[in-house]
């Protein structure tokens, strides 16, 4: 056995069971993080097979190695530049043609590769029989049939991968003579050095891949004329754009291989097919969706509330014990408030909701249902400039913005992710609903509370459109595979939830703790009074609120529902009708609703998009809240609120 | 369906006219053509086509939809088409009804989106079947290459489909492969 570590990369389409294989191989020896500078999950793990240490990396599920989504860029860089010792290409036996089109692209990168022909059980249920030997012969690479959810074939897979890692790299499948000769010609004239295989560079130049063009033409500008000539030649012959010709040919190869190694029987329509039909039915689909969402919501938040309550009691006891031991001095209070409270806030506010959220999201994803929700909500989401997948994070925002912001990564490009997270951070979460209900609905009237929600939705609509307009790049339409329903693996989902949660704690908690610390120190130094004074032109003059509102709003950044409690304690009463006018209550609730995401949400934004963008989003929201708050005040004064 | 196809053709013709003849900048012609296409009658469109010297390509170098027959309703269409079967019906994917089948002719639109569409397997010449269309102008679900794909209405309207005609079934392998076909015959 080789002493040095072996690097394996798992690659394949989405919904082929790639993550299941990853989890089966690496178990708890995983590390989930992000690709450097990218909002794409990077899952790595280790495995020991008969003394051989193996590093496994789970590449994102993609359909092509172009550069149109961040996931594609990440994957192709990893395969071409990092050059793993072996690639395990996970192929869905029940959708062989589409999967092979990707396999052909992988082979073009000339790696060492083994194919895991997965989900042969699902394929058989669909009446599709694939012959692994035939496939292996057609592609010139080893093919191992697997049923990942049951662990079948995985030992064989690893064994074969280790053998393949010591063998030769594979040869790409040649295109038709017309294209192949032109690739060879470009390749022969290629002098520029790139980290990629030469034939692949030739092919990508022919295809018009912008990234490769940029690299090569900078080093060798004179090659462009030749490439353009060859392109024009092919376009002349086929009457289609060159990239279209090449993609077509690739699919044609995939199709012919798939046909040659597959036989079919007609399956009966089963319960699963009917469920799939119902779930995307123009009427019933929505019924099922609303029911599912309510159920998901209810379960996440009732569980979250219960756990948060429990944790609060626990930390309450801890706090009491702490002060009983150390006594209530300025120092001990400061240490608790500045040092410990931020951590507790994170544990109590964020984790009880995020944990179940990750779990349910993972289960829904693997079951194939999420794709149907995105399908049904696509047109509604287009009104705010997002496509159907964006509905899921926005919906979650009503419970808590933190999972909503994190959920925005299901969008394809950074542009869509950012717009989606921005919109989600404007959705009135449960904490904001507490303020709206506790203040406006109770003291001003339920209709005024509803009006607030209405204003918020309008704001989401307008700001969403605006973000859509100002964000650079081409907007992305919805295009996705509608996977068949299947039972998600509880083990895989639980593992994934655990690793994602760990990542969240590592990355978001520091922001919460530091944020809390800064505010507490400011309080001790008496800076809050100064800030209150500085803010009074805005709070008192522009927004017409009592001057204590300044401090309340600052603390509200920690937890928005705290604003209500704090307002009560600073004004010396919880009967707000005696200290605030209805207009003040309405304006206050509006500002709290919009002004800035809470510190946990900001932390999530920082984690996903970096400090700069998180600050821009927060800044925009503060601006909107203040400007509109003052306008609302004046409008209400003008029409005269009862 | 014929109607949609006709309007697209008129739109393209107008674009060519506005750009090539009137020399309007290319980024402005689309909007203008959108407004004009509906008021253009068939006679004018055909005259425009002649003046423009029967163009084959649109201003953005995509192929111009083929000229189709000037008919009022389906009955007339059938009569006319039985006489000249070389005219296929081409329409946008977004116009297909559930269960209708067709073949991808060409894809219009931005470089990125058309590449994404083709990367997902909807290349020219691909057979597909409309499965379902979500209400409120939502996405369409199509069966292609043995899997199900969902496409937003915007992307679906960039894809032009030659529609299967009841009178002339496609000569092609069944999507489930040759064996499937054989079994079908045995029954």
Q: What would a concise description of this structure say?
A:
The complex is a heterodimer of chains A (about 650) and B (about 190). Chain A is an alpha/beta fold and about 650 residues long.
Notes on the protein architecture:
The complex is a heterodimer of chains A (642) and B (187). Chain A contains 27 helices and ten strands. Chain A is of the alpha/beta class. Chain A folds into four domains: 6-165, Rossmann fold, CATH 3.40.50; 177-264, Helix Hairpins (Orthogonal Bundle), CATH 1.10.287.1770; 278-430 and 448-474 and 489-508, no CATH class; 515-599 and 612-639, no CATH class. A seven-stranded mixed beta sheet of chain A has the order 2-3-4-1-5-6-8, sandwiched between helices. A two-stranded antiparallel ribbon of chain A has the order 7-9. In chain A, α13 (284-326) runs antiparallel to α14 (330-367). Chain A is elongated, with a radius of gyration of 28 Å. With 187 residues, chain B is an alpha+beta fold. The longest helix of chain B is centred in the first third of the chain and has 20 residues, at 2-21. A six-stranded antiparallel beta sheet of chain B has the order 1-6-2-3-4-5. In chain B, β3 (127-133) and β4 (140-144) form a beta hairpin. Chain B folds into two domains: 2-75, Winged helix-like DNA-binding domain superfamily/Winged helix DNA-binding domain (Arc Repressor Mutant, subunit A, Orthogonal Bundle), CATH 1.10.10; 88-163, SH3 type barrels. Chain B contains seven helices and six strands. Chain B starts with a helix and ends with a helix. In chain B, α1 packs across α3 (42-51). Chain B has helices at residues 2-21, 26-37, 42-51, 74-83, 111-119, 153-156, 178-186, and strands at 90-92, 101-107, 127-133, 140-144, 147-151, 159-163. β10 of chain A pairs antiparallel with β5 (147-151) of chain B, so a sheet runs across the interface.
Spell out the blueprint of helices and strands.
The complex is a heterodimer of chains A (642) and B (187).
Chain A: E1 6-12, H1 18-26, E2 30-34, E3 41-49, E4 52-58, H2 70-82, E5 86-92, H3 96-108, E6 113-118, H4 120-125, E7 128-130, H5 132-139, E8 143-145, H6 154-165, H7 177-189, H8 198-207, H9 210-219, H10 223-238, H11 242-260, E9 262-264, H12 271-279, H13 284-326, H14 330-367, H15 369-382, H16 391-397, H17 401-407, H18 414-424, H19 430-443, H20 446-470, E10 479-481, H21 490-524, H22 527-542, H23 549-556, H24 562-571, H25 582-594, H26 599-609, H27 611-639
Helix pairs in contact in A: 1-21, 3-11, 7-8, 7-10, 13-14, 14-21, 16-17, 16-18, 17-18, 17-26, 18-20, 19-20, 19-25, 20-25, 21-26, 23-24, 25-27, 26-27
Chain B: H1 2-21, H2 26-37, H3 42-51, H4 74-83, E1 90-92, E2 101-107, H5 111-119, E3 127-133, E4 140-144, E5 147-151, H6 153-156, E6 159-163, H7 178-186
Antiparallel strand pairs in B: 1-6, 2-3, 2-6, 3-4, 4-5
Helix pairs in contact in B: 1-2, 1-3
């Amino acid at each position: 056995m080789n002493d040095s570590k072996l690097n394996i990369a798992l690659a394949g389409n989405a919904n082929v069971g790639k993550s299941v294989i990853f989890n089966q191989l690496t178990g708890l020896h995983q590390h989930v993080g992000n690709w450097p500078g990218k909002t794409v999950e990077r899952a790595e793990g280790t495995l020991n097979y008969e003394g051989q240490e193996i590093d496994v990396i789970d590449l994102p599920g993609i359909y092509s190695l172009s550069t149109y989504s961040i996931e594609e860029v990440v994957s192709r860089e990893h395969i071409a530049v990092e050059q793993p010792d072996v690639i395990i290409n996970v192929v869905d036996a029940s959708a062989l043609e589409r999967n092979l089109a990707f396999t052909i692209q992988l082979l073009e990168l000339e790696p060492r590769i083994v194919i895991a022909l997965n989900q042969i059980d699902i394929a058989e249920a669909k009446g599709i029989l694939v012959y692994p030997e035939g496939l292996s012969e057609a592609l010139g690479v080893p093919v191992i049939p697997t049923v990942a959810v049951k662990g079948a074939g995985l030992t064989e897979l690893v064994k074969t991968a280790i053998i393949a890692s010591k063998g030769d790299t594979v040869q790409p499948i040649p295109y038709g003579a017309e294209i192949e000769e032109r690739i060879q010609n470009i390749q022969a004239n290629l002098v520029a050095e790139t980290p990629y295989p030469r034939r692949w560079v030739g092919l990508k130049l022919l295809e018009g891949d912008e990234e490769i063009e940029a690299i090569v033409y900078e080093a060798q500008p004179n090659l462009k004329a030749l490439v353009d000539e060859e392109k024009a030649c092919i376009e002349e012959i086929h009457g289609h754009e060159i990239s279209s010709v090449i993609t077509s040919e690739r699919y044609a190869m995939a199709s012919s291989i798939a046909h040659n190694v597959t036989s079919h029987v007609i399956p009966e329509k089963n319960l699963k097919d009917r469920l799939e039909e119902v779930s995307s039915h123009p009427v019933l689909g929505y019924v099922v969706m609303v029911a599912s969402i309510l159920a998901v919501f209810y379960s996440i938040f009732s569980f979250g509330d219960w756990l948060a309550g429990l944790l609060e009691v626990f930390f309450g006891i801890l706090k009491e014990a702490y002060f009983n031991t150390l006594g209530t001095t300025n120092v001990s209070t400061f240490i608790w408030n500045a040092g410990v409270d931020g951590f507790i806030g994170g544990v109590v506010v964020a984790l009880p909701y995020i944990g179940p959220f990750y779990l349910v999201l993972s289960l829904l994803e693997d079951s194939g249902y999420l794709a149907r929700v995105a399908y049904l909500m696509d047109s509604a989401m287009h009104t705010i400039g997002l496509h159907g997948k964006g509905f899921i994070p926005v919906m979650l925002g009503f419970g808590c913005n933190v999972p909503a912001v994190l959920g925005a990564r299901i969008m394809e490009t950074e542009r869509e992710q950012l717009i989606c997270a921005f919109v989600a951070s404007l959705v009135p979460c449960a904490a904001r609903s507490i303020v709206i209900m506790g203040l406006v609905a109770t003291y001003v009237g339920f209709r005024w509370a509803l009006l607030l929600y209405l204003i918020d939705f309008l704001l989401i609509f307008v700001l969403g459109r605006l973000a859509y307009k100002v964000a650079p790049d081409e907007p992305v339409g919805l295009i996705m595979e509608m996977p068949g329903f299947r039972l998600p693996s509880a083990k895989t989902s639980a593992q994934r939830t655990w690793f994602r949660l760990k990542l969240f704690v590592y990355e978001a908690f520091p922001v919460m703790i530091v944020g809390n610390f800064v505010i507490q120190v400011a309080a001790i130094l008496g800076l809050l009074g100064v800030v209150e004074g500085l803010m009074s032109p805005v709070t008192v003059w522009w927004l017409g609120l009592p001057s204590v509102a300044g401090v309340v709003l600052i603390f509200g950044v920690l937890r928005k529902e705290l604003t209500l409690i704090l307002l009560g304690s600073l004004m010396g009463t919880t009967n707000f009708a005696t200290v605030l006018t209805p207009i003040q209550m309405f304006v206050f609730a509006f500002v709290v609703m919009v002004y800035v995401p809470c510190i946990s949400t900001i932390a999530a934004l920082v984690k996903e998009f970096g400090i700069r963008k998180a600050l821009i989003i927060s800044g925009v929201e503060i601006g909107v809240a203040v400007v509109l708050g003052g306008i609302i005040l004046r409008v209400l004064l003008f029409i005269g609120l009862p | 369906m014929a109607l949609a196809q006709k309007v697209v053709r008129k739109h393209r013709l107008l674009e060519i006219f506005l750009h090539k003849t009137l020399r309007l900048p290319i980024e402005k012609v689309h909007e203008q053509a959108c407004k004009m296409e509906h008021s253009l009658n068939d006679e004018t469109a055909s005259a425009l086509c002649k003046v423009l010297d029967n163009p084959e390509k649109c201003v953005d170098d995509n192929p111009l939809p083929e000229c189709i027959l000037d008919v009022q309703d389906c009955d007339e269409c059938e009569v006319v088409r039985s006489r000249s079967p070389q005219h296929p019906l081409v329409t946008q994917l977004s116009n297909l009804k559930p269960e209708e089948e067709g073949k991808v002719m060409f894809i219009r639109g931005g470089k990125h989106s058309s590449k994404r569409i083709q990367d997902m397997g909807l290349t020219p010449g691909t057979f597909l079947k409309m499965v379902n269309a979500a209400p409120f102008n939502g996405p369409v679900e199509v069966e292609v290459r043995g899997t199900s794909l969902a496409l937003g209405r915007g992307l679906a309207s960039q894809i032009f489909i030659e529609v299967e005609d009841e009178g002339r079934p496609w000569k092609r392998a069944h999507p489930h492969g040759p064996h499937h076909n054989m079994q079908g015959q045995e029954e």
